[in-house]
Automatic annotation (TrEMBL):
Membrane topology value: Multi-pass membrane protein
Chain ranges of the ABC transmembrane type-1 domain: 84-274
InterPro entries: BP-dependent_transpt_permease (IPR050366), MetI-like (IPR000515), MetI-like_sf (IPR035906)
Keywords, in A-Z order: Cell membrane, Membrane, Transmembrane, Transmembrane helix, Transport
Cited Gene3D superfamilies: MetI-like
Principal localisation: membrane
Subcellular location: Cell membrane
Signal peptide extent: none
Protein name: ABC transporter permease
Pfam families in the record: BPD_transp_1
Sequence similarity: Belongs to the binding-protein-dependent transport system permease family.
Transmembrane segments: 21-45, 86-111, 123-141, 197-218, 257-277
Family annotation (SUPFAM superfamilies): MetI-like
Amino acid sequence: MADTTWRASLGGAAKNRSTRAWRVGSSAVIVAAVVLAVLVVPPLVNLDEQAVNLAAKLRPPSWEHPFGTDDVGRDLLLRCVYGLRVSLLVGVVAAVVATVIGTAVGALAAASGGWVDRVVMRLVDVFSSVPHLLLGIFIVAMFRPGVWPVVVSVALTHWLSTARIVRAEVLSLRSRPYVDAAISGGASRTRVIVRHLLPGVLPQAGLAAVLMVPHAIWHESALSFLGLGLPTHQASLGTLVQSARGSLLAGDWWPTLFPGLFIIVPTLAIAGLAGAWRERINPRRRSELML
């Protein structure tokens, strides 16, 4: 009986490892394909993604147009690639900026302690009580539509979770013997933070940045879908879905399906890689990824 249980346990562990390896491998392939597409396709394909051809409007997928055409005859594959390029730019830049802000705020609060920690974390709680999308709409509404207002909006609404994570990690590191030794040796607070605390939180901060990229892409797509992100003439996954609503009601499914897949599949692939990274950083926590 014990031998059977042991064999079943080994089989289950091997199956889990195989599933995890397949998930990570497929996610890596998708992310590599996405990066290759956004870097290689625009320079190599000598086509204007804004070129209008009313004679070819709303053509279904074919060899000439693998994703079909939109309501003014533009190639949807090329438009999706350009839209993904913009969405990735917004997602990556916003995630990096938000991570830098969150890391600085969390490290400052934990390293300072006392009333500084309490005030900073109460401010974090206040901002966290406002829905991200609502606060993002308020920020974007103050600027003209464009890429950088969306980056600012996403960055200023997504640093809060990073601040909490970094604060908790710094509080844990402060109790380590080498930190006590540095303080006893006369090291300044700034030196302790820069030389001993920040290097310890960089893996968590990097993981937070990667986890934030899919969320930032979804946030940008939502703002653009609402007409508050990028201008309607500029290719963005959110604007592509928004402009295809009329076509969907008329029974033309491809202008909505393919931009939607370009939002969902790459972000899930990035989330899959982030989950594998989290398991490597903290093997005891193999819970499902939550954004």
